[in-house]
Amino acid sequence: MSLESTLTLRRGFARAPLREPGEGHAPLPECLRGAQPAGDAPLLQVDGVSLEYRTPERVVRATHRVGFDVHAADRFVLLGPSGCGKSTLLKAIAGFIAPVEGEIRLDGRRVNAPGPDRIVVFQEFDQLPPWKTVRENVMFPLLASRSLGRREAAERAAHYLDKVGLSPFADAHPHQLSGGMKQRVAIARALAMQPRVLLMDEPFAALDALTRRKMQEELLALWEEVRFTLLFVTHSIEEALVVGSRIALLSPHPGRMRAELNSHDFDLHSQGSAQFQAVAQRIHGLLFEQEAASGPQQRP
Ligand SMILES: Nc1ncnc2c1ncn2[C@@H]1O[C@H](COP(=O)(O)OP(=O)(O)OP(=O)(O)O)[C@@H](O)[C@H]1O
Questions:
Q1: Atom of ligand 1 nearest to the CA of 253
Q2: Going by C-beta distance under 8 Å and a sequence separation of 6 or more, which residues neighbour residue 102?
Q3: Which residue's CA lies nearest to atom 5 of ligand 1?
Q4: For residue 194, what are the contacts with CB-CB under 8 A and spacing of at least 6?
Q5: Mutate to test the pocket of ligand 1, among 51, 78, 88, 298 (most ligand atoms within 8 A of CB)
Q6: What is the mean pLDDT of the chain?
Q7: Cystine design at 84: which of 165, 169, 250, 274 (Cβ 3.0–4.6 Å)?
Q8: Which residues are 233's β-sheet partners?
Q9: Are 155 and 130 in contact (CB under 8 A)?
Q10: Cβ 239 vs Cβ 219: under 8 Å
C-alpha cells in the first residue's frame, strides 16, 4: 500500500452487519488496543449517537449509535471511508446538528448548541474573511464572542501567530497567502480561542503532498507545545496514524464504530517502518475486508 493511499476512491461497500474487532481475524496487538486507563474522566463523550439528514424525499442516516470518549490532550482521529459520517459527527460535536438518538457531553454537560469551547477548522481555504488582515482574522472571534478586549485580543493573536510562524504576515490579507499559510491562520484563530476541543475536518486535504506533510509536522509540534485536545477527521490511514494518538475506525455508510485503537507510537518518521506499514495494512483490512468478501455494491 502506498504512503499516500487514502480511502476516498473506494466505493460500493457491502452492507452486511459489521463484525466486532477481533472477530474473524487476528486480535489487535496489545499496543494498539483502544482502552484508556481507568480513573481519567473523559472530556468529551459521544454516547450512542445516531445522526440523520431529513430531506422532503427521504431520511439519510449518517451515523448509527456511535460511541467513544475523548480525554484531555488526546489527538483523537475519526477515520473511515467517504460518506461514513465523519464530518456529520464533527458538526454534531460542534453543536450544529442534534442527534436523533444518544447524547454528546462536554465536561459532563450535554452539547446542544455551538459554543466557544469547540472551534472548527475546515478544509476550505476560504474560511477567512478576505477583507480582514491576518491579525484581524485571528482577533475576530475573540472580539465577537466578547472573550477579550481589543488590546488583550491583539496580544493573544500575536502569540498564536508566532506559534504558527506567521508573525511577519500579520498585516497581510488572505489572498496574499498560500493555501498552507491560510490553514495556519485558521489554526491560530482556533487556538487563540483556547477551546476545550479543537475540531479539524480534513484540514490538510486540499494541500499538495509536501505541504500536507509539513502541516502535519507543524500541528504535532504545536500540540507538543500547547497540549490542546484535538478531534481530527481524515480518510487517510497514514494521516490518522501520524496525527492521532487514538483512532476510531468507522464503517461505511451509515457510520458505526468498527474499532478503536491507540496510535501514539507513530509519527512522521515512522512512516517507512515495517511496523507502520503493517498497522496501516491492518487498518485497511478492518475497513475493507467486508467489501472484499462481498464484492462491490452501489452506495445509496
Ligand atoms: N446536507 C445533507 N443532506 C442530506 N444528506 C447529507 C447531507 N450531508 C451529508 N449527507 C449524507 O450523510 C452521509 C454522511 O456524510 P458525511 O459528509 O458526514 O461523510 P464523511 O465521512 O465526512 O465523508 P467525506 O469523507 O466524503 O467527507 C453521506 O451519505 C452523505 O451523503
A1: 29
A2: 46, 47, 48, 49, 50, 65, 66, 67
A3: 53
A4: none
A5: 88
A6: 84
A7: 250
A8: 78, 201
A9: no
A10: no
Q: What are phi and psi of 229, to 5 degrees?
A: -95, 130
The three cell numbers of residue 233 are: 477527521
Which residue in the block uniquely carries the three cell numbers 508566532? 162
pTM of the model: 0.84
What residues pair up with 60 in beta bridges, in sequence order? 53
* Band (16; pLDDT cuts 50, 70, 90): very low
ipTM: 0.97
Q: What is the pLDDT of residue 18?
A: 28
Ligand 1 and 75: CB distance under 6 A: no
pLDDT greater than 50 at residue 5: no
The predicted pLDDT at position 143 comes to: 95
> Which residue ranges form the domains of the chain, and what is each CATH number?
43-239+259-275 (3.40.50.300)
pLDDT in the model for residue 293:
53
Dist CA 161 CA 233 (whole Å) = 24
Residue 79 alpha carbon to ligand 1 centre in Å: 14
- Residue 256 Cα to ligand 1 midpoint, Å, equals 14
